[in-house]
LysR family transcriptional regulator
Amino acid sequence: MKDVELRHLRCLVAVAEERSFSRAAMRLGTTQPSVSQLLKRLEDVLGHRLVERDRTSVALIPLGEAVLPIMRQALASVDLAMEETRRCLRGEVGRLRIGVATLALYGKAPSLIRRFRAMYPEVEVTMTVIRGNDRIRLLLEGEIDIAFVAAAPSHPTLTQIPLSEEVLCAVLPDSHRLARAEAIGLADLADNDWIMPPAGMPLHNDIVRECHRAGFEPRITAESDDFSTAFGLVLAGTGIALAGESFRDFTGPHLVLRPIRDLPLRLRHVLLHRQSQMSPTTLAFIATLAPCPG
């Protein structure tokens, strides 16, 4: 049966349903001689006649009637497989593996993921919380498809899609001497202990650089890439921290966020993805970002 093609099966179905070579040819978009040749080829491969022909009509013989449902089922299965393949290529089904850095969970990531789930309900979405340099490694090794991160380092084979940015504020206990100041200078924080993002993160390096510009070396007593952990450490008297303006609602009654008037740093939320070998679901997700400002 290796010489049988879909066109042979479609020819038999068309002839059976139209009961005419000419009408079958019109339905298939070909010529009457071509229909005759296709049907004869099918019969030759099977080694049996399937239709009875005369000058005025054509009809299936009993064997043709017996194989017709099988042919229809085979064609329906192929059509279904092709449609499912097209849906996969459009990113409507499949799997999307998302990495989310803790910092990004407080940005636009949750709402963007919810929107994608609503638009593509048949895509299996898996989530992984990523930390530090794992975000780069997991993307490069193909273990995740996209990553929501804040303060992402650049990489030659990864693309960054900006999502939003926000100013950084000082996180202080409400008993701090500057807790009631409307705005403070970075140098005003020189005599404090600091809770910083982990060493090696771009944000860590940027904060240290700005402290140097303000004339002091920050005394780092703890590191965390989780703002909620940093807030707890501030409450425990471990030191002060920096956080984006959007974290104001998470500070609780005993912490305050105060703007720093001379700190140009911004917390940038971005989506990372590989520049090549992008899955259809990745492309579909990126397409949903088009209406998203910033």
Remarks:
- The CA atoms of residues 146 and 273 lie 5 Å apart.
- The chain has three domains: 6-89, 94-162+269-288, 165-266.
- The chain is about 40% helix and 25% strand.
